[in-house]
Amino acid sequence: xxxxxxxxxxxxxxxxxxxxxxxxxxxxxxxxxxxxxxxxxxxxxxxxxxxxxxxxxxxxxxxxxxxxxxxxxxxxxxxxxxxxxxxxxxxxxxxxxxxxxxxxxxxxxxxxxxxxxxxxxxxxxxxxxxxxxxxxxxxxxxxxxxxxxxxxxxxxxxxxxxxxxxxxxxxxxxxxxxxxxxxxxxxxxxxxxxxxxxxxxxxxxxxxxxxxxxxxxxxxxxxxxxxxxxxxxxxxxxxxxxxxxxxxxxxxxxxxxxxxxxxxxxxxxxxxxxxxxxxxxxxxxxxxxxxx
Amino acid sequence: xxxxxxxxxxxxxxxxxxxxxxxxxxxxxxxxxxxxxxxxxxxxxxxxxxxxxxxxxxxxxxxxxxxxxxxxxxxxxxxxxxxxxxxxxxxxxxxxxxxxxxxxxxxxxxxxxxxxxxxxxxxxxxxxxxxxxxxxxxxxxxx
Lengths: 292, 143
Hints:
The structure holds two protein chains of two kinds. Helices cover 64% and strands 3% of the residues of chain A. Chain A contains ten helices and two strands, in the order ααααββαααααα. In chain A, a hairpin with a 5-residue loop joins β1 (139-142) and β2. The model of chain A has no long low-confidence stretch (mean pLDDT 90). Chain B has helices at 21-49, 55-80, 88-98, 100-120, 134-142. In chain B, α1 (21-49) runs antiparallel to α2. The N and C termini of chain B lie far apart (75 Å). The model of chain B is unreliable at 130-143 (pLDDT under 50). The interface between A and B is large, with 79 and 74 residues.
């Protein structure tokens, strides 16, 4: 912990010194982060407003239960905890870089900046995988035209509504055209590992296969889900990306010895403030989208 | 110490501890809080899966997770961002404006809840409004 020996009774507001005892750049970085906190706060609170205003919202444990290379295994919270730990750890390496900067140890700063940058890339990679998984993973839902079909999670579609009753599912299946039935049935076989020439079957045979499989179809959920999820995690991901760029610039400047010439490593501290803020926002995104 | 040369605004330079013990302590604390949150998240998941999910228990667990998140935010800001080591004036210029969030959260969640109440008590004239998106309606009209 850094300590500051300040004489008791220091008159901060009587002029001649900064009442914040911090450089202009650092104070302005804090004010920027405060305004950014309000931007993220407004996004998350409007998400909360919409979520409070509807009767049913997607259960995060159902939506985010996949893990790379784990196939269809049901692993709620697993992948997002990995992402959280990556970001916490890259926050630690960032503090360690700032710490080495205080000691004017250029090699140490370089080492920890590299680790922080790698952590940032790892997080972005995880997010890319998760987005791809949601945007391409289709679930059987009641479509707007009353038929049953496969829907991905996008800003325009949300298959995570309430469960469709067996009765409603039968009604919808009767209206569903042949190609959609084939898609649904082949999805069942994909999971079961059984392969047939499905498209040759008649509609009635397909429907009986589908109903016999105990398929869980859903109503569509509030369309706002995808928009909020991709909008907020995207805005956060963009912050991570720009943080990585800033960290790379800081690494290059360290390598070129700019901070040694200047006599201090305060730029690393300011970049660090931004990087920790990104971690801080993730703590709240994690809370709002995955935990509650 | 070289810190004196950073900028003229810094009247009293801070002396930094030589070891990194407090950084790792904070890391383990944050990890512990995250593991607790994950445990509660899984508990909520299992309650939902159960026969008779208790809404009160779920709400209680969610409240605890929110408090743990605020604790994590406190440690990140205070230790990792060094705000806890700044002078009081600096801390206040950041923390006081953030108090707006207290009104912000209460007012807007209240508003959302009031929309839900209206939706559910509208004499059935707007059934299942959350299921029908404007875009989908237009598309349906064209088909």
